[in-house]
Amino acid sequence: MNDNTGMELPRRQFAKAMTAAGIAWTVPGPGVFAAGSDTVRVAMIGCGDRGTVDAVYCLKSAPGVELVAIADLFQDKVDAAMEKLRKEVPDQVKVKPERIFLGFDAYRKVLALDDVHMVMLLTPPGFRPEMVAAAVEAGKHMFVEKPGAVDPVGIRSLMQSSKRAAEKGLSLVVGTQQRYAPQYLEVIQRIRDGQIGALTHLEALWIGDMELWHYADRKPEWSDMEWQVRCWPFFTWLSGDHYVEQLVHNLDVVNWAADAVPVVCHGLGGRQVRTGPQFGNIFDHFAVRYEYQNGLTMFGLATQIRSITTRVGNVLHGTKGTAHVNRGVASIVGEKPWEFNGNPSSGDLEMHAALIRSIREKKPINEGLRLAEATMTGIIGRMSAYTGRALKWDWAMNASKLNLRPEKIAMGPIPVEPVAIPGRTPLI
Q1: What pLDDT does residue 7 have?
Q2: Most C-beta atoms within 10 A of its C-beta, which of 23, 123, 272, 311?
Q3: pLDDT band for position 14 (cuts 50, 70, 90)
Q4: What domains are there in the chain, each with its CATH number?
Q5: pLDDT number for residue 33
């Protein structure tokens, strides 16, 4: 079960390619920036609530950043985003009417704009791999929201795009903002320094209620596709399920602490509370056990069930103590207790500032492999829970043919895939 050979080779090959591309990283990317202060022109691709928040953070993160183009499927989403942006960062919104694009091909029209230096890829993750690939070929720096894909086919595409971005000297910063938050940085450093001893087991927790995700009542004029895209969190082909879309933050943290990816997992889950058709085809609870190659175990727990006791964050256990960290606090209990006494942060502003700085200083940051690994950790957990089968990382990464993308991406009819049933849903 713990044979990891099939996983390590492609991971080493990818890391080697990234290192080899270090020479390319010194080559200026798109745009010429003098003294680290010239205007960086940004475009939004996707105008949802979280994406608009990302854009606000980006525009606030450094002076001289302007929003010059927007793409989305729906005009009302564009209007809502523009209203918020003009309220929050009015002087930096420079979007002319002719630079607002609608439709499934709108992102390609944005990528064709020569004066756009960086694109923010903020659409539902089911569209992420193709958009990252197109942005790389267009030579654009990128902010890429998490997760990076919803299935193994998409993960392999994302990894290839990340490698290509490194070769072209493009920044690819991803929405796992805890990596920039001071409380997370300090607790990870203390773990590296041995303050909790050798790691024994890890916890990734998003035991939450369902208030965060709201479904929209379907309007008679909406086609199947419009309904699913507008309610994208509830459809696995668009979101990856909440285990992937939401818990990916905490899964990234445990991989960060372990400095590795798991080699096998066994998951359970189901749909007990949210059973109506308005909730699409995702589960409402998951529990997944992972093993790393050195015997380290990790537990991923995620729910979206109202009126339960909630807990969101990470617990990292070692032989000499236990670390607790979330977006508000960090602490260690055990032989060497410690409590973070700085100013905690979500990491969002720092993340976007780092991206803008990397563009201006021509020192690209490439986090594509990290996004692929964190996302794949979630995907294999979901696949195991959906099928009831224990699952090896190397098989999923290299052999799984699971591709959730519909054959036709267009407004119109698209059936809802049945809810997975462990023991009956096939492992593909």
Answers
A1: 32
A2: 123
A3: very low
A4: 5-178+350-366 (3.40.50.720), 179-345+376-398 (3.30.360.10)
A5: 53
Query: Given this model, what pLDDT does residue 214 score?
Result: 65
